[in-house]
Design brief:
The complex is a heterodimer of chains A (about 250) and B (about 1000).
Chain A: E1 2-4, H1 9-16, E2 22-24, H2 30-34, E3 45-48, E4 57-59, E5 63-67, H3 72-77, H4 83-92, H5 95-98, H6 103-109, H7 115-122, E6 126-129, E7 136-139, H8 140-143, E8 152-158, E9 162-168, E10 178-184, E11 190-195, E12 202-203, H9 222-246
Parallel strand pairs in A: 1-3, 2-3
Antiparallel strand pairs in A: 4-5, 5-8, 6-7, 6-8, 9-10, 10-11, 11-12
Chain B: E1 4-11, E2 14-21, H1 26-32, E3 51-54, E4 57-60, E5 73-75, H2 98-105, H3 115-128, H4 134-140, H5 152-165, E6 176-177, E7 202-204, H6 224-229, E8 244-250, E9 256-262, H7 264-268, E10 272-277, E11 307-308, E12 314-320, H8 323-332, E13 334-339, H9 346-349, E14 373-381, H10 384-390, E15 393-401, E16 413-418, E17 424-428, H11 433-444, E18 451-454, H12 471-481, E19 485-488, H13 491-497, E20 504-512, E21 518-530, H14 536-547, E22 556-564, H15 578-596, H16 600-607, H17 639-650, H18 658-661, E23 669-679, E24 689-696, E25 702-706, H19 715-727, E26 734-738, H20 755-781, E27 791-793, E28 796-798, E29 804-806, H21 807-817, E30 824-830, E31 838-848, E32 854-864, H22 871-890, E33 920-926, H23 948-960, H24 971-980
Classes of the chains: A alpha+beta (about 250), B alpha+beta (about 1000).
C-alpha cells in the first residue's frame, strides 16, 4: 500500500479515484484493520486527511459546522460546541481514543452504540461531501451504515432548542445497551434517535418505538432492548416537553 | 509487496528519520527503537498501555500508523528522566520529575506495566490544567485500563503532583490512624472517621503489636523508580539477535478431531523456520496448573493433540522471521477437522448422552472421563442428615456463578533461547518460575538442570500466570530452530486460550433452629473445568473449604463434581474458588435471616467463626496429600472491628431510612446498602514452601535472593522490609532479586496468598541467621564475650556499653581481614497453619427499577490481614482486588455463541471498570497480631475478591426487595428479576 497525505481537498479527491484507495482519518478504527493479517497483501493508496485543515469548528446563530477531521476531544474543548453535544462526545471513547478519533471517521464507521451519532441525528446533521462545484450535501441518516460514497469534509447541524439524553449500560462509562436522544427545536419540531435498536443509531418516530424489533445480543435481548427503547424514549420526550414548558 | 515511506519524528526532543512500512504501527516502530515504556495491551488500543504523547496529546500507539506521526513530536517517559547519577538511588538522584515522584510516593505503582502511560496522561492534563478536579484527573486517565490499583492511588498521585507543581506543599503520604470502635473503643457516631483522601489507608492499630522500624511502615516500593522511568524491566524488554516470532494456530471448533494436517505450504513460505503440531511433537502428558510436585491428576494435556476441545485450543505453532510471516504461515496450514458435538454447560455435561470431552485412551487418572467428571470431591463432618432432621427449618437454595477472565494488561509472553552453555533460558511472565522449570522439562525432553526460568517484572497475573501455559511452545520451537523464539499472546488469545474463573452451580442446604444456630450445612457443587482439569481439583477444594468454614454448624458436608466441557479453560484466578463459594454462602445466609425475620448481620455474627474456633472441615479440604494433623484453630480475628468500621464508613443506618432509599425527586431510583463477611486462608498448609538467601556486601548492604515471584503486588518490597527490620538497616540497604531458577532458592511461587506469610517467614529466618553471624563477628571486633548482647540498628552493631561498629566494618572485617568468610545464610519455611484473614465488605448502590441498571456508588472494605507489613501496598491490593471483584459481580462476563465462540473477546464488549466511572472506595486495615506470621502478618491479596458480589446482591436486595441468585448483575438480569417480582 502507498501512503499519501494530500494538502488540498481537490488533491484528496483525485487520489480517491484511484483503485483501492482508503481514507484514513484518526485511524482508531481503520488502523487495526489495516494492520491485520488479512490486509497484509492489500494494494492501493492510504489517504491521510490530517493536512487538509478540516479540523475547524465554526458556529453562527443558525448552525454549528464541524470540520470532518475535528477530533472528539476538540469537540469537547471547543467553546462553540454546545455542552450537550460535548457530553455525548465525551461518552464516545476514553481520552486516548478521543484525541485521535474524528467526527467524520465516526460518521463513516457508524457504530451502533454511538450516542454522539444519535445526537447528530436529532440535530438534523447534514454532511458536506467533496468540495467546490462538485460538492453535495446529504442528511446523515441517509449515509449511516451505508457509506457516504465520497469524502466527508464538514458536518453541519442545528443545535437550538431543548435536548435530552438517557441511557442504560452495564456501567456508567460502558457503551449503552440502548440510549435515547431527543430534541425539541425552537419551532416545536421534535426528533428522537435511538442507539442499540438497529445496526446504526436511527431516527425513530415517537409513535413507532413500541413496534421496534431490535437485534439482540449478549448484552440485551431483543425484547429487553425494545422495552428499554420505550422507557428511555418516554423519559427523554417528557424531559424536552418539560424544558419547552419551562421556557 | 510493501512500500516503505521516509518519515521524520521529533522523538523525545531529538529529530529522527526512519523508513517505515505503511502498515507498521507507531507502537512497533518505537519498540524497535528500544523505547520499552510503550507497552502492548491489545491491537485495538483500548488498554492504553502503549499510550504516548503526540504533539502533547495522549494517544494509543497501537492504533496509529508510524506514517501518521511523520512531522510530529512524540514524547515518552524515557524523555522525562533519562538521567542516571551516582550516589544513593533516590527519586531525586534517579532524575524523576514531580509527576513520577508523586506516583512513587503514593504507592500508585503496582506492576508498573501501564505506569508510564498514566504519567504521560498526567503530563497532558497538567500541561493545560494546573488545578484539575478529581473528575478531570479521572477523565485524563480514562484511556488507561488498570487491573491492579482500582485507580485510587494513581488519581491521588496526579492530584498530588498538581499541587506540588502549583507550588503547594504536601505532607508525606502515609496511613491515617483511626481509633477502634470495639473493645472499649470510641462511640462510633455516624460521621466519617477521617477527612483524609480516600487513597489514604485507614489503619486501626492493635496494642499487642511490638514497635518496628521498617516493617509496618509505608516504605516506597523497591522497584518503583525503575517502573516510573519505564526502564526495560518486562519480558519483552530485551533484544535477542536473530530472534524468531511464534504464532499459534487455534481451533475454530469447540470439539473436533484433527483428521489431517498439511503443513507443506507453511513450511515452504520464505522466513518460516518451524511448524510444529501433534504429528511432529512427542506426546507427553501433563497438567498445566503451576502446582507443587506431584501435580494433581489428571494429566489430561499434551503439547499438541489430535483432538481439539475448545475454540482457541492449540492446533499448531509456527516460528518465523517476523510476526507477519508467522501469521501468514498459519493461514497456509491445511487442517481437516471432524467436527464433534460439543457441550458447554456443566450440568448438561453430566447427562448420559453428553459428548465425551476426554475419550483419549491414554488418560488413566481422571475420575470418570466417560461421564465428563475429572474430579469428585467429598468431605464431611458429623452427620448432616441428622442435622437437617433435627432443625426447625431447612433452607435449600441454588446459585449460578459464571466465567470471567483475569485480564492482566500484559498478556502471556515468553522468550526462550539456548545460552552459551546450551542450556535453555526461558524468560517468561509467570507466577511460578520453579514449577514451570520442573513441568516443562519432560515435555522438552530436557533435564531440569538444562533449563533456567527467569521471571522479570511482570504486568499482572491474578492466577492466569500460575500455569505452564506457553513455555512448552517456545521451548519446542527453540529446539526445532536453534534460534531465540518469542511468543506473545494477542488479547483475543488471552481470552480464549489462557485461563479463567470456574463457573459453578452451587446448592446450599442449611438446617436452622429458631434460636439462630445452624444444625447442618451442606454444599453441593457442579463445577465447570472446561477442556482441561488443570486447577480443577484444588480450586474446587478451596470452594468447599471456604464455603463451609465461615460459619459454625453442627454438621457439614461437601460434595462436588468437577466437570469437563468445551469452554475455554478455567484455572487459577485470584480468590481461587472462594469468590464463588462466598457469593452463594453470604447470599444464602442473608436470605435465611430475612426469611426468619432476623437481622442479617446479627444472624451471621451468631454463627461466624472467631478466635478460638475450630476449622473442622479444613483437614479434609487441604490440598494434595498433606493432611494436617490436629484441627486448625483460628488464632486471630478482627472481624468485629472490621464490621464496625465498615458500618460507620458506609453509613449503614441509612439502610432502614425510606426517605433515603426512595428519593422523592428520582421516582425510578431505589437506593440500598449491602454487606458481606469474608474469611480467606493464608497459604496452603503443609505444602507451600518458600526459601531465601541473604548475604552481606562490602558496604554493609545485603543481597536478598528469594524464589518468590513478585507479580506487581509489592512482594519484593515487603520481603525486603522484613530483612531490613531484622538486620537493623534502612530498606535502601537491601538489594532484592527474585524469581530466577538459577540464582535464587526455591519457592512455590506467587499464589494462595502465600508470599508475605511463607516467603516472608523464610526471609525473616534467613535474616535472623545472618543477624546472629554479624553479632558474633561484631562481638569479636568489639572484644565482647556475649554475642547475644549485641544489637543491630541504624546500620551498626551496638555493644551494651555503647560502643559500636558499622555493618560496613563488619563486612570488611569478615570478607578481607580476619578469618575471612562470606556472612550469608539460607532458610526455608513451610507452615502447618493457614491463619484466616477476615473482612467486612460494604457496597452502596442505586437501582433504576424501570430498566434494571445498577450503579455502584461506594464500596468500603475493612480487612484484618494481621499486621500489614506495608500499609500502602496492602491497601493497594485491597483497592485493586475490590474493583476486580466488582467486575465479577457487576459487568464482566465471557459470552459465547451457540458454537462456543466467544463473542466479546476484547475490552469494551468485555467490560472492565475505567478510571472515570469508579465508585468511591475506602479501605480500612484492622490490625491483629497473628503470632504464626512474620511480624504478625496474614494474607491480604485474595480476600478482596470475596465479598463484593454478595454485598452487591445484598444492596440490590435492600434497594428493591428482589434477591437474585446469579451473577453478574447486568441490567437485563436485574430487570428480568424485578419483572418477576
Amino acid at each position: 500500500m502507498r501512503y499519501r497525505r494530500p494538502t488540498t481537498i481537490e488533491e484528496a479527491l483525485e487520489i480517491l479515484t484511484e483503485p483501492g484507495s482508503v481514507i484514513l482519518a484518526g485511524g482508531t478504527t481503520a488502523v487495526p484493520e489495516l494492520t491485520s493479517v488479512a490486509a497484509a497483501d492489500r494494494t492501493g493508496v492510504l489517504i491521510d486527511l490530517q493536512d487538509l485543515g478540516l479540523d475547524r469548528i465554526r458556529r453562527d446563530e443558525r448552525v454549528l459546522r464541524l470540520g470532518a477531521t475535528t477530533t472528539l476531544q476538540q469537540m469537547i474543548d471547543a467553546p462553540e460546541v454546545p455542552e450537550f453535544l460535548a457530553g455525548l462526545a465525551r461518552r464516545e471513547a476514553p481520552r486516548t481514543i478521543r484525541n485521535m478519533a474524528t467526527v467524520g471517521g465516526l460518521v463513516a464507521s457508524a457504530p451502533a452504540t454511538s450516542e454522539l451519532l444519535a445526537g447528530l441525528l436529532v440535530c438534523g446533521a447534514r454532511l458536506r461531501i467533496g468540495s467546490g462545484d462538485g460538492a453535495s450535501e446529504v442528511h446523515i441518516e441517509e449515509v449511516l451504515g451505508s457509506g457516504s460514497g465520497g469524502l466527508i469534509t464538514e458536518i453541519v447541524l442545528g443545535c437550538n432548542g431543548a435536548m435530552a439524553h438517557e441511557r442504560v449500560a452495564r456501567t456508567p462509562a460502558d457503551s449503552p445497551i440502548v440510549a435515547a436522544v431527543a430534541r425539541r427545536r425552537d419551532d416545536g419540531q421534535v426528533r428522537l434517535a435511538l442507539c442499540g435498536v438497529a445496526p446504526t443509531p436511527v431516527l425513530v418516530e415517537p409513535g413507532a418505538v413500541a413496534g421496534l424489533e431490535p437485534p439482540g445480543d449478549f448484552r440485551g435481548s431483543s425484547e429487553y432492548r425494545r422495552r428499554l427503547a420505550v422507557t428511555l424514549s418516554e423519559r427523554v420526550l417528557a424531559r424536552i416537553e418539560d424544558a419547552g414548558d419551562n421556557k | 509487496m510493501t512500500t516503505t515511506v521516509p518519515i521524520e519524528i521529533t522523538l523525545n526532543g531529538v529529530t529522527r528519520s526512519f523508513e517505515v512500512d505503511v502498515h507498521r504501527t507507531l507502537y512497533e516502530l518505537l519498540r524497535s527503537e528500544g523505547l520499552f515504556s510503550v507497552r502492548f495491551g491489545s491491537d485495538t488500543g483500548e488498554t492504553g498501555a502503549a499510550a504516548l504523547l503526540l504533539d502533547g496529546r495522549l494517544v494509543s500507539a497501537e492504533v496509529i500508523l508510524a506514517v501518521q506521526a511523520d512531522g510530529h513530536r512524540i514524547d515518552t517517559v524515557e524523555g522525562l528522566s533519562s538521567r542516571v547519577e551516582a550516589g544513593e538511588l533516590t527519586p531525586e538522584v534517579a532524575g524523576l520529575d514531580v509527576i513520577q515522584t508523586a506516583f512513587v510516593a503514593t504507592g500508585a505503582i503496582q506492576s508498573g506495566y501501564s505506569t508510564p502511560a498514566m504519567i504521560l496522561a498526567a503530563k497532558e492534563l497538567l500541561g493545560v490544567n494546573p488545578d484539575p478536579t478529581e473528575a478531570e484527573v479521572r477523565d485524563a486517565l480514562s484511556g488507561i485500563l488498570d487491573r491492579e490499583s482500582g485507580y485510587v492511588k494513581p488519581v491521588e498521585a496526579v492530584l498530588r503532583a498538581a499541587a506540588l507543581l502549583r507550588g503547594e506543599s504536601r505532607e508525606p503520604f502515609r496511613p491515617e490512624v483511626i481509633a477502634p470502635l470495639t473493645e472499649g473503643g470510641s462511640d462510633p457516631g455516624t460521621g466519617p472517621a477521617t477527612s483524609a483522601s480516600a487513597a489514604v489507608p485507614r489503619i486501626v492499630l492493635s496494642s499487642d503489636v511490638p514497635p518496628t522500624a521498617v516493617v509496618g511502615k509505608p516504605e516506597l516500593k523497591v522497584d518503583a523508580i525503575k517502573l516510573a522511568k519505564g526502564n526495560g524491566a518486562f519480558v519483552d524488554d530485551i533484544e535477542m539477535r536473530g530472534m524468531l516470532h511464534a504464532k499459534v494456530l487455534r481451533s475454530p471448533h469447540a470439539h473436533a478431531r484433527i483428521v489431517s494436517i498439511d503443513d507443506s505450504a507453511a513450511r515452504a513460505l520464505p522466513g518460516v523456520h518451524a511448524v510444529i503440531h501433534h504429528e511432529n511433537i512427542a506426546r507427553v502428558r501433563y497438567a498445566s496448573g503451576g502446582q507443587s510436585w506431584p501435580n494433581p491428576a489428571p494429566l489430561d494435556q499434551v503439547s499438541f493433540d489430535n483432538k481439539v476441545r475448545h475454540v482457541g485450543d492449540r492446533v499448531a505453532a509456527v516460528a518465523a522471521e517476523t510476526p507477519e510471516i508467522a501469521a501468514a504461515a498459519l493461514s497456509l496450514i491445511d487442517v481437516t477437522y471432524e467436527v464433534l458435538p460439543a457441550v458447554f454447560d456443566e450440568n448438561e455435561a453430566l447427562a448420559p448422552d453428553a459428548p465425551v470431552v476426554h475419550d483419549e485412551p491414554d488418560l488413566d487418572d481422571a475420575f470418570a472421563p466417560s461421564r465428563n467428571i475429572s474430579h469428585h470431591i467429598e468431605a464431611q463432618v458429623g452427620d448432616v442428615e441428622e442435622g437437617f432432621a433435627a432443625a426447625d427449618r431447612v433452607f435449600e437454595q441454588t446459585f449460578r456463578v459464571h466465567q470471567v477472565q483475569q485480564c492482566p494488561i500484559e498478556p502471556h509472553i515468553a522468550i526462550a533461547w539456548w545460552d552459551e552453555d546450551e542450556r535453555m533460558v526461558i524468560r517468561t511472565s509467570t507466577q511460578v518460575p520453579f514449577h514451570v522449570r520442573r513441568m516443562v522439562a519432560p515435555l522438552l525432553d530436557l533435564p531440569v538442570k538444562r533449563i533456567r526460568v527467569v521471571k522479570p517484572r511482570i504486568g499482572g497475573g491474578f492466577g492466569a500466570k500460575q500455569e505452564m501455559l506457553i513455555e512448552d511452545i517456545v521451548g519446542h520451537l527453540v529446539i526445532a530452530t536453534g534460534r531465540p523464539v518469542k511468543l506473545e499472546l494477542t488479547r483475543e488469545e488471552e481470552f480464549a486460550s489462557s485461563r479463567t474463573r470456574h463457573p459453578q452451580t452451587i446448592t446450599y442446604r442449611t438446617g436452622v433452629n429458631s434460636d439462630g444456630t445452624l444444625t447442618a450445612q451442606e454444599m453441593r457443587v457442579v463445577a465447570n473445568t472446561g477442556a482441561f482439569g488443570t486447577h480443577g481439583l484444588t480450586v474446587q477444594t478451596v470452594t468447599g473449604m471456604r464455603g463451609l468454614s465461615s460459619y459454625k454448624a453442627g454438621a457439614k458436608r461437601f460434595d462436588c463434581d468437577v466437570v469437563y466441557t468445551n469452554i475455554p479453560v478455567p484455572g487459577a484466578y485470584r480468590g481461587y474458588g472462594a469468590p464463588q463459594a462466598l457469593f452463594a454462602l453470604e447470599s444464602h445466609m442473608e436470605d435465611i435471616a430475612r426469611e426468619m425475620g432476623w437481622d442479617p448481620i446479627e444472624f451471621k455474627r451468631q454463627n461466624w467463626t472467631v478466635e478460638g474456633d475450630v476449622l473442622d472441615i479444613a483437614p479434609q479440604l487441604g490440598e494434595g496429600a498433606a493432611e494436617v494433623g490436629p484441627l486448625p484453630i483460628v488464632t486471630s480475628c478482627g472481624l468485629e472491628e472490621c464490621v464496625a468500621q465498615g458500618m460507620r464508613a458506609i453509613g449503614w443506618e441509612r439502610r432502614e431510612d425510606p426517605a433515603w432509599r426512595e428519593p422523592s425527586d428520582r421516582p425510578n431510583i431505589r437506593r440500598g446498602i449491602g454487606f458481606a463477611m469474608c474469611m480467606h486462608g493464608t497459604a496452603i498448609p503443609g505444602l507451600d514452601m518458600g526459601a531465601a538467601s541473604i548475604k552481606i556486601n562490602d558496604d554493609g548492604s545485603f543481597n536478598v535472593l528469594v524464589g518468590a515471584a513478585d507479580l506487581g503486588t509489592g512482594a519484593d518490597t515487603v520481603l525486603a522490609q522484613m530483612a531490613a527490620e531484622v538486620l537493623g538497616v534502612p530498606l535502601s540497604d537491601i538489594v532484592i532479586y527474585s524469581g530466577d531458577t538459577d540464582m535464587t532458592p526455591f519457592d512455590v511461587g506467587a499464589y494462595a496468598s502465600s508470599t508475605t506469610y511463607i516467603s516472608g517467614m523464610a526471609v525473616k529466618k534467613a535474616a535472623e541467621k545472618v543477624w546472629w553471624k554479624i553479632k558474633q563477628r561484631a562481638a569479636r571486633m568489639l572484644d565482647i564475650d556475649m554475642a547475644c548482647t549485641i544489637e543491630l540498628r541504624d546500620r551498626r552493631a551496638w555493644a551494651p556499653d555503647g560502643r559500636s561498629v558499622s555493618l560496613a566494618e563488619v563486612a570488611l572485617n569478615s570478607l578481607h581481614t580476619t578469618d575471612q568468610e562470606q556472612i550469608m545464610d539460607t532458610a526455608s519455611y513451610v507452615s502447618t497453619e493457614s491463619p484466616p484473614p477476615y473482612a467486612g465488605q460494604f457496597v452502596e448502590v442505586e437501582v433504576d427499577v424501570d430498566t434494571g441498571q445498577v450503579t455502584v456508588v461506594k464500596m468500603v472494605m475493612a480487612v484484618d490481614c494481621g499486621v500489614a507489613i506495608n500499609p500502602v501496598t496492602a491497601s493497594g491490593q485491597i483497592e485493586g482486588g475490590m474493583v476486580q471483584a466488582l467486575g465479577y459481580g457487576h459487568c464482566e462476563e465471557m459470552a459465547y455463541d451457540d458454537e462456543g465462540r466467544m463473542v466479546n473477546a476484547a475490552f469494551g464488549p468485555y467490560w472492565i471498570y475505567r478510571a472515570d466511572e469508579m465508585p468511591e472506595l475506602e479501605v480500612y486495615l484492622v490490625q491483629t497480631m497473628e503470632d504464626s506470621g512474620p511480624f504478625g502478618a496474614k494474607a491480604v491479596a485474595e480476600i478482596p475478591k470475596d465479598g463484593v458480589a454478595p454485598a452487591l446482591r445484598s444492596a440490590i436486595l435492600n434497594a428493591t426487595g428482589t434477591a437474585i441468585d446469579a451473577i453478574p448483575f447486568t441490567p437485563e438480569r436485574v430487570w428480568s428479576a424485578l419483572q418477576e417480582g
